[in-house]
Amino acid sequence: MVFESLSEKLQSALGKLKGKGKLSEKDVDLAMREVRLALLEADVNFKVVKDFIKNVKERAIGSEVMESLTPGQYVIKIVNEELTKLMGESQAKLTFASSPPTVILMSGLQGAGKTTTAGKLALHLKKQNKRPLLVACDVYRPAAIKQLEVVGERVEVPVFSMGDKLSPVDIAKASIEHGKKHGNDVIIIDTAGRLHIDEDLMNEIVNIHDAVNPKEVLLVLDAMTGQDAVNVADTFNQRLGITGVILTKLDGDARGGAALSLRAVTNKPIKFVGMGEKLDDLEPFYPDRMASRILGMGDVLSLIEKAQSSIDEKKALELEKKIRSAQFTFDDFLEQLEQMKNLGPLDQFLGMIPGVNAKALKGLDVNDKDLARLEAIIKSMTKKERENPDIIDSSRRKRIANGSGTNVQDVNKLLKQFKETKKMMRKFTDMEKTMKKKGKFG
Ligand code: GDP
């Protein structure tokens, strides 16, 4: 999970303030000392941490506490706001040229995920009814051209390449002519990676830049590299004038330092984050949602958006009604599991819901094989059992296991997961209701 360790530490530090009716300066100091350590351990830039703590302290100690909040809650609110500010306040969108095509130059170190991300971006744009063209400008590694072609095929986006004999500058220029002729309105240029900052390659990308005058210069950075990523960003920004960053591998156990320091150090926004190896694992970056996620308030909006795009809305409404009236049955559960397959890794999805312990639900990950087994078990239940699992005693469990070719442990596990899911869904609708009441939602 993204920022797991930072998130836990911040929540623990701030949790100590939560219940307090009154806060002394010492309380705030102590909590801030822990927050400071948590941020440093997450590999956030030293100076960024210093400023952050200073800002929070000043605001926390200097101002009148709002009536509706306890002092502890108020500090959490400030930390949330400052974290959001640190990451850039609002979502930074791609800008498009007023007369197409829009040229996007992809840059970054080798292995950061540049080629994969070029493909993800192409798919993202295609879903917005754009007609992207991918361009292979890495002429140094023949495998790189092939890799982009494979990616292009998978997202069904055309790839422009001229082999490895021409200069990248000529290929880039030719690609724009090609794109214009073929009605491509966005041209994504994949450039040669480098293992570290390399003067020749740096000059080359600057030359490509000058030749094609891109609207967007996106730097792809590996979140796992922490502070290094921030240094790379600083250099690329000075040489190339980047317009934004795509931070990859946030699905791994990145400590978070890069995401939290980039903006402050380079003054350039994170526009997207890579959340996995699959080509649809690219998400727009929302600083406010990320801050809430770090502080464990749950990324409610992301969750809803994700759920809405994957789950048929009418079915979702029906389901909601059932959950509200506590009629959620095993038949619904099965349907739910099938839909959840489309949502990607389940623990990632569940981690966005406040109060859900994603770790505890890890076993709930659904793949096709699991699904077939779960389906067999559910289908071996009688109609009555499916509607009212409470009646499934041990002899019924044995019968179901036999009938589905599984064993009693499997049946037990499923019954437990069903219960958890039901609980989680109820929690989710409750939360939704509260948010609606507060006018923050829908
Ligand atoms: P390039 O050298 O910068 O073009 O990097 P590639 O696109 O070849 O990616 C390097 C490796 O990182 C590949 O194994 C990708 O599958 C992987 N990768 C890229 N983006 C992500 C991401 O967001 N999450 C994860 N887990 N892996 C990623």
Task: Explain briefly what this protein structure is.
The chain has 442 residues and is an alpha/beta fold. Helix content is 57%, strand content 9%.
Describe this structure in words.
The chain is α/β, with parallel strands linked by helices and 442 residues long. The protein has three domains: 4-86, Up-down Bundle (Four Helix Bundle (Hemerythrin (Met), subunit A)), CATH 1.20.120; 102-294, P-loop containing nucleotide triphosphate hydrolases (Rossmann fold, 3-Layer(aba) Sandwich); 300-437, Signal recognition particle, SRP54 subunit, M-domain (434 Repressor (Amino-terminal Domain), Orthogonal Bundle), CATH 1.10.260. Helix content is 57%, strand content 9%. The protein is built from 19 helices and eight strands. It is flat, with a radius of gyration of 25 Å. The two termini are 27 Å apart. 41% of the residues are buried. The model is unreliable at 298-305 (pLDDT under 50). Bound molecules: guanosine-5'-diphosphate.
Tell how many strands the DSSP assignment holds: 8
Predict the CATH topology of the largest domain. Answer: Rossmann fold
Shape: flat
**Chain-averaged pLDDT:** 82
Order of strands in the sheet with most strands: 3-2-4-1-5-6-7-8
Strand content: 5-15%
How many separate domains make up the residues? 3
The first-to-last residue Cα distance is 27 Å
Helix/strand/pairing category = alpha/beta
